[in-house]
Amino acid sequence: MEKFQAVLDLHLKHHSALGYGLVTLLTAGGERIFSAVVFQCPCSAAWNLPLVFLLVPALALFLLGYVLSARTWRLITGCGCRARASCGSGLRGSLVCAQLSAAAALAPLTWVAVALLGGAFYECAASGSAVLAQRLCLHRDHNCAAELPLVPCHQAKASDVQDLLKDLKAQSQVLGWILIAAVIIILLIFTCVSRCLSPVSFLQLKFWKIYLEKEQQILKSKATEHATELAKENVKCFFEGSHPKECNTPSVKEWQQISSLYTFNQKDQYYSMLHKYVNRKEKTHSIRSTEGDTVIPVLGFVDSSGINSTPGL
């Protein structure tokens, strides 16, 4: 039991890193299976060059990253019904969309990097490029350009042309490692800059994450309890033909306000939109837009938490 609790504590402490690691492993494994089982190079000058085999799956993974992000649904759910609130327009919306795009880019970048390291997609695409053919076929057989699209299928008649497969594979792997190095460097720079510009200290950030975890646990428990009582009362009244007793439930406006994207204000440091809502000074005052509110990248985890970690579609 103690070992199970230790594993659970490790998951709660590093759930974000573990989630990204799992996504990376699944994407890399999926790409390897796709390359080995599904993909076949057409070995035709007309069909080798299109990169749909590489880019379309990456685009699908990128869009899937948006779909699986809780912040996406916080941003757009009920957007059309807000009379005076814009749906992420201006600098605030741009920052949120940039953060969403960066998080959603993990899986497609992994797909492209693993595909480049494998070499199959690049070999197929590069062999159909007329520009690369001029450079690769320099000082080689005069039929090199015509036979180059056949190289990935090992059907080139000239041996020196078939040997170009090694060059194509080497180029693909070099590009793959360059992409991996670039992503790591950019991620490291972004993390360092966002932490450097953090308005709160390291320990307060740790406390903030603990608070959010506890708030969501209690919110889910209370929501389940309230929903259960409301359902029991309605079912009871239906069968008994009686009127239900009054049950206080948050209004649509109240739900909308605590579901808005979080913004940080140096004057009033609230740890969530729920925290901000219950401490509002006026009952009629909107908490979604206050002077001095800003979107802080390092505090993006506030919007990622919710009653359910995965949005229901």
Tell me what you see in this structure.
The two termini are 35 Å apart. The relative contact order is 0.11. The protein is built from 15 helices and no strands. With 313 residues, it is mostly helical. It folds into 2 domains: 26-77 and 89-197, no CATH class; 202-300, no CATH class. The protein is elongated and about 90 Å long.
Concise synopsis of the structure shown:
By secondary structure, this protein is mostly helical. It has 15 helices and no strands. Residues 1-12 and 309-313 have low confidence and may be disordered.
> Could you estimate the helical fraction of the residues in percent?
55-70%
Q: How large is the radius of gyration?
A: 27 Å
Mean pLDDT: 80
Class of secondary structure makeup: mainly alpha
SSE layout and pairing:
Elements: H1 2-13, H2 15-38, H3 52-67, H4 70-76, H5 90-104, H6 106-118, H7 120-127, H8 130-136, H9 144-147, H10 159-162, H11 164-196, H12 202-240, H13 252-258, H14 273-278, H15 301-304
Transmembrane segments: 45-68, 100-122, 174-197
GO molecular function: monoatomic cation channel activity; voltage-gated channel activity
GO cellular component, one term: immunological synapse
Task: Kindly list the characteristics that best describe this protein.
transmembrane helix, elongated, membrane, mainly alpha, Calcium homeostasis modulator family member 6, 64% helix, 2 domains, 313 residues, ion channel, disordered N terminus
